[in-house]
């Protein structure tokens, strides 16, 4: 096969494969770190032991995913050097620096606070422990921030110019604050949060449906639901803003997202394609369901387009993305999941307002709970689809408009890349299956509701070493 | 301005050397303990070894991530050239580290500890082997064209000299791991590690002596630099200091002291690092591309220095505190 001897294609596949797998772990830990901040805060505020046990229970899943996230992330950084050496040389001044910051700050988080968060219960003052939990969440999201800064800069490079094949930066802060940055960072921030919320909600629903610790998990489901009320609609809105910026800065990507071959002129309505079978050879859709006049409403909330929307035919085939069908359907899957999760939120909110989510009645909501279980993996699928749109849609550019992907790859023998790609496929599949296996073991085992409560029982929860125990200083009433 | 153009790459060369040294020392404990665990037939003992590292390995590994980022940002040309030239050893290291990491995570939840204990040991060994080959290849030099792009073959890194470096590094890791375990264990287990430490000290030193002899003989450029002042004086001192430190290490092991073997080992590694650093400097791809040729723009070096430079003291403080 041709592709097996094509180093660029193999290096791309390897990067895509490692990125798609790696992302599964930090997406959960980044979002879940915020949930852990919420439950620990509620524990400190109410001193209700359930919140403490929630913090302990979910942090088991957190740490499992965290370790695999660290391990699976290593090849991401090193691949820029091994497989994309010309790219590294061209963009290292900025891109490399940003990855360096990410490494330094991840260090602050991992070395400094994760240990306290996991092993510090009962050993350090509750306020210090809470600070550690907050710093872990802050660090995880800071990592997301720097990675998204680096990627956004590749989508919309600013702050300098290409000189003799090397990007010379004139203004680092302008490069950080590139046009894509704010919306992309926000979109990913809410994506990790939304994914984690529905994972936690889905697992909670599973327990309730199986008549295990119903009151305990009704609590987490409601926390998640309360957060989802704000997060799900906001994410749809930020997604819309992101599509607008794609339309403005990366028209080739927008055309591929909509499988749009012909240009629609300004001042007129245009149809919006709901489903289609794109035919790249013929440069048209061989089958299509369209919504008449829909495009204007989707892009600008009005019938007539104020600016022309170019079709793919405006560019030579070498200057526009390929795999149009993949981009087109990934975009629809991502958006579809966004609306589905918002709908689930509305349905659940309605039941909550009707009083049907109380600890006694919640188990009767069988279809609602089943839908939550069904929704648990959807966030991941949406995140992965979104990144496929973002990075496959950026092609043929590694750095949009500046460096072509074909010129960015190292000149390696295809056999080497094929070997490492095969190994990654095997190893990451094992990691994926093992995480599911051990994660489900943790879930089947369930929370430890016998766990001693630090500060209430007068004993530290972790008693492996002598610890300086600081009792709750507040009056007795406040401790109840 | 010219002074600044030289000064900044030098600063980053020193910072990178510091990161590399810290990584080798800190993850050296973990990797050494992992390699040692392969030689242990006793499951309980192996579990004790792994538990002693349970919550420090990922912090130690972060120095590698940080070093990668810093090399990428400060010397982009070298990052691409070295890593693509060392494609196989780098991925050996990465796969080894992945095995090591998941062994820690999954072992905790698994009933079949044996499998994951083996993944821990084998992963540590493969990672150390990859690092050793990479180090050996960098000392030997990488075939590049005038622009600094790799023009050699994908197996260039593999010969008897890089194998010698790799085996010596593995022995060195076993030495650090053993002296660390001497500090952390007691009784029969500790006695065992006095033995492994002694053995590793002897094999490490033998390897180091061979490398020290071979390097000036085989590499003309290194020979010229080593044998002309002022470096010749420094290189006359290093072996003497080395012999003294090895003597002190063996003495402390014979007298079964608990803390000092680790200290002497760290100092031996530091001395080796200074020696290597002086051989390599001012090249980043010996002996073709200097740090000045490979460096990012001065503005980039300053930019990174302001962010990462501020964090370095905090990170160092945390490590000492630990």
Can you characterise this structure?
The complex is a heterodimer of chains A (480) and B (322). Chain A is mainly alpha-helical and 480 residues long. Chain A has a domain at 3-241 and 408-466. In chain A, 66% of the residues lie in helices and 6% in strands. Chain A contains 15 helices and six strands. Chain A has helices spanning 7-46, 49-82, 85-119, 126-155, 172-176, 181-209, 214-249, 251-257, 294-300, 324-353, 366-375, 378-392, 405-408, 414-445, 476-479, and strands spanning 160-163, 166-169, 272-279, 284-291, 397-399, 403-404. Chain A has a two-stranded antiparallel ribbon with strand order 1-2. Chain A has a two-stranded antiparallel ribbon with strand order 3-4. In chain A, strands 5-6 form a two-stranded antiparallel ribbon. The longest helix of chain B has 38 residues, at 2-39. In chain B, 82% of the residues lie in helices and 2% in strands. Chain B has one domain (2-321). The mean pLDDT of chain B is 84. Chain B is an all-alpha fold and 322 residues long. In chain B, a hairpin with a 3-residue loop joins strand 1 (283-285) and strand 2 (289-290). Classes of the chains: A mainly alpha (480), B mainly alpha (322). The interface between A and B is large, with 65 and 59 residues.
Which residues of chain B form runs of ≥5 with pLDDT under 50? none
Mean pLDDT of chain B: 84
Largest sheet of chain A: 2 strands, antiparallel
Low-confidence stretches of chain A: 458-480
Secondary structure tally: strands of chain A: 6
Instruction: Give the rounded overall mean pLDDT of chain A.
Output: 87
Amino-to-carboxy terminus distance of chain A? 69 Å
What would a concise description of this structure say?
The complex is a heterodimer of chains A (480) and B (322). Helices cover 66% and strands 6% of the residues of chain A.
């Amino acid at each position: 096969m041709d592709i097996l001897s094509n180093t660029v294609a193999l290096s791309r596949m390897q990067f895509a494969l490692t990125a798609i797998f790696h992302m599964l772990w930090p997406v959960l830990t980044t979002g879940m770190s915020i949930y852990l901040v919420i439950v620990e805060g509620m524990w400190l505020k109410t001193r209700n032991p359930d919140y403490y046990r929630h913090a302990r229970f979910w942090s088991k899943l957190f740490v499992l995913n965290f370790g695999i996230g660290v391990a699976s992330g290593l090849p991401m950084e090193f691949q820029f050097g091994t497989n994309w050496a010309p790219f590294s040389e061209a963009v290292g001044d900025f891109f490399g620096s940003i990855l360096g910051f990410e490494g330094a700050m991840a260090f602050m988080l991992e070395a400094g606070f994760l240990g306290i968060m996991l092993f510090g219960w009962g050993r350090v003052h509750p306020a210090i422990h809470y600070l550690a939990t907050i710093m872990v969440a802050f660090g995880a999201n800071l990592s997301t921030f720097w990675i998204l800064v680096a990627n956004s800069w590749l989508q919309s490079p600013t702050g300098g110019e290409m000189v003799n094949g090397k990007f010379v930066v004139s203004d680092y802060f302008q490069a950080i604050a590139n046009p894509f940055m704010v919306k992309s960072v926000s979109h990913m921030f809410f994506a990790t949060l939304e994914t984690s919320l529905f994972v936690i909600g889905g697992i909670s629903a599973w327990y309730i449906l199986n008549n295990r610790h119903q009151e305990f998990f009704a609590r987490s489901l409601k926390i998640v639901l309360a957060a989802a009320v704000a997060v799900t609609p906001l994410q749809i809105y930020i997604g819309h803003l992101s599509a607008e910026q794609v339309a403005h800065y990366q028209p080739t990507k927008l055309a591929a997202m909509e499988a749009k071959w012909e240009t629609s002129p300004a001042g007129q309505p245009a149809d919006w394609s709901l489903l289609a079978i794109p035919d790249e050879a013929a440069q048209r859709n061989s089958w299509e369901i369209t919504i008449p006049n829909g495009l204007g409403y989707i892009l600008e909330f009005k019938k007539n387009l104020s600016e022309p929307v170019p079709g793919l035919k405006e560019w030579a085939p070498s200057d526009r993305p390929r795999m149009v069908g993949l981009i087109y359907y990934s975009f629809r899957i991502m958006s579809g999941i966004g609306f589905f999760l918002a709908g689930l939120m509305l349905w659940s909110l309605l039941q909550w307002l009707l009083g049907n989510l109380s600890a006694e009645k919640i188990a009767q909501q069988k279809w609602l709970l089943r839908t939550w279980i069904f929704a648990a993996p959807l966030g991941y699928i949406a995140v992965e689809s979104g990144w496929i749109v973002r990075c496959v849609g950026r092609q043929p550019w590694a750095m949009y408009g500046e460096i072509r992907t074909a010129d960015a790859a190292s000149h390696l023998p295809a056999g080497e890349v094929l070997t490492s790609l095969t190994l990654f496929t095997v190893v990451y599949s094992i990691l994926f299956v093992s995480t599911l296996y051990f994660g489900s073991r943790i879930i089947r085992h369930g929370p430890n509701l016998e766990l001693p409560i630090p500060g209430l029982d007068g004993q530290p929860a972790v008693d492996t070493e002598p610890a300086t125990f600081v009792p709750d200083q507040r009056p007795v009433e406040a401790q109840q | 301005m010219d002074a600044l153009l030289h000064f900044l790459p030098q600063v980053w060369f020193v910072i990178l050397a510091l990161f590399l040294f810290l990584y080798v020392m800190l993850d050296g404990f973990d990797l050494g303990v992992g390699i040692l665990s392969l030689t242990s037939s006793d499951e309980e003992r192996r579990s004790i070894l792994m538990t002693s590292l349970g919550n420090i390995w990922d912090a130690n590994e972060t120095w590698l991530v940080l070093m990668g980022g810093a090399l990428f940002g400060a010397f982009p040309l070298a990052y691409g050239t070295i890593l693509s030239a060392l494609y196989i050893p780098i991925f050996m290291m990465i796969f080894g580290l992945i095995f090591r990491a998941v062994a820690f995570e999954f072992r905790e939840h698994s009933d079949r500890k044996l499998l994951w204990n083996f993944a821990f040991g084998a992963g540590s060994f493969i990672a150390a082997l990859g690092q050793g080959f990479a180090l050996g290849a960098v000392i030997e030099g990488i075939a590049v064209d005038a622009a600094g792009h790799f023009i050699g073959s994908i197996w260039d890194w593999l010969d008897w000299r890089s194998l010698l470096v790799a085996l010596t590094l593995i022995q060195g890791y076993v030495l650090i791991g053993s002296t660390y375990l001497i500090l952390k264990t007691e009784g029969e287990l500790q006695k065992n590690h006095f033995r492994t430490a002694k053995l590793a000290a002897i094999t490490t030193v033998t390897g180091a002596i061979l490398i020290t002899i071979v390097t000036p003989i085989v590499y003309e450029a290194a020979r010229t630099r080593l044998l002309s002042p002022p470096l010749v004086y420094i290189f006359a001192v290093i072996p003497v200091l080395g012999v003294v430190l090895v003597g002190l290490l063996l003495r402390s092991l014979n007298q079964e002291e608990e803390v000092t073997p680790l200290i002497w080992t760290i100092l031996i590694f530091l001395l080796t690092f200074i020696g290597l650093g002086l051989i390599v400097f001012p090249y980043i791809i010996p002996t073709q591309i200097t740090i000045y040729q490979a460096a990012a723009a001065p503005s980039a070096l300053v930019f990174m220095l302001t962010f990462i430079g501020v964090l370095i003291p905090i990170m160092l403080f945390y490590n000492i505190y630990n």
